[in-house]
Amino acid sequence: MANATEKILITGALGQIGSELTNKLVELHGAENVIATDIQKFDKNHTNAGFYERMDVSNTALVQQIVKDYEITTVYHLASLLSGTSEKNPQFAWKLNVEPLLNFLEMAKEGKLKKIFWPSSIAVFGRGIPKENVGQEVVLNPSTVYGISKLAGEKWCEYYHEKFGVDVRSIRYPGLISWKTPAGGGTTDYAVEIYYEAVEKGKYTSFISENTAMPMLYMDDAIDATLQLMAAPSESISVRTSYNLGGMSFTPKELASEIKNIIPEFEIDYQPDFRQAIADSWPASIDDAVAKKDWGLKYQYGIKEMSEDMISNLRKKLCHS
Ligand code: AKB
């Protein structure tokens, strides 16, 4: 049940997760209680939030002012640089992925915010663990800039919760797939691009090799999981770093074969680039039993249902029928 007094601020609101989460939060809480922010100029096609502020999350003073002006209680802090882009600009990735989170955690510590959601990633995993069915509590040894920043963020979240009682909640998202807003700069982005190119051109060159499996999740399930976690009673949250989310696991070859069932003439070839090494350092599948037990995580979409939904919506969006 939505709490009418909640005032919600979203950072990265025009991004892949942000655009869909914002609209869902508007449905649940009312447009007047949702303040969308992003570094980009306002785009009315992307958000129906009651308010929009063009905001650079690195501008600490501006962020604090906006939280104060709108009497924000809850923050979904989504603004982040993904794995591919982070490798190209490590200093900026660290600055963007860690420092604004610390600003929000400090505000919560000072009683200026009640609750924070912050996304982590399967990128926190790395060397020294089995590839399959990776559990919640394993050694975290990331070898990417993005993974290092997410691991640091997770530890900050846990620290602020344990030391100061800050109610911060987080999910280790796998690759997210959606047709509404394209992803940008990630290693799992091939699994979004492939659908666009299948519908538009009937062929795709994958930058990930054919037999590399990674965990993936359809956006509808990601949004549901995020809202479920945020609605769960505080006592049921046993993980204050970040919860594993497994979704489904597949290789580019398996995804291509699923797409061929709907678009028989579809063709794929493979030209792995620097993102292959990132994918190789990540798990092939994830065990999310703790999230299922603590707050009832469940999924609606498998690879078949997702492919049908993606292709039918992209055909409409891209004007093919
Ligand atoms: C990326 O590929 O960088 C992201 C992620 C798995 O966090 N989609």
Describe this structure as you would to a colleague.
It contains 11 helices and 12 strands. It is an alpha/beta fold. The chain folds into 2 domains: 8-174 and 217-244, Rossmann fold (3-Layer(aba) Sandwich); 178-216 and 248-284 and 301-320, UDP-galactose 4-epimerase, domain 1. The N and C termini lie far apart (39 Å). Bound molecules: 2-amino-3-ketobutyric acid. Residues 82-83, 121-123, 146, 173-176, 186-188 line the site of 2-amino-3-ketobutyric acid.
Features:
binds 2-amino-3-ketobutyric acid, 321 residues, alpha/beta, 7-stranded parallel β-sheet, UDP-galactose 4-epimerase, domain 1
Entry summary:
With 321 residues, the protein is an alpha/beta fold. It has 11 helices and 12 strands.
Shape: globular
Can you list the ligands bound to this structure? 2-amino-3-ketobutyric acid
Name of the CATH homologous superfamily of the largest domain: NAD(P)-binding Rossmann-like Domain
Identify the CATH architecture of the largest domain. Answer: 3-Layer(aba) Sandwich
Number of domains: 2
The end-to-end span amounts to: 39 Å
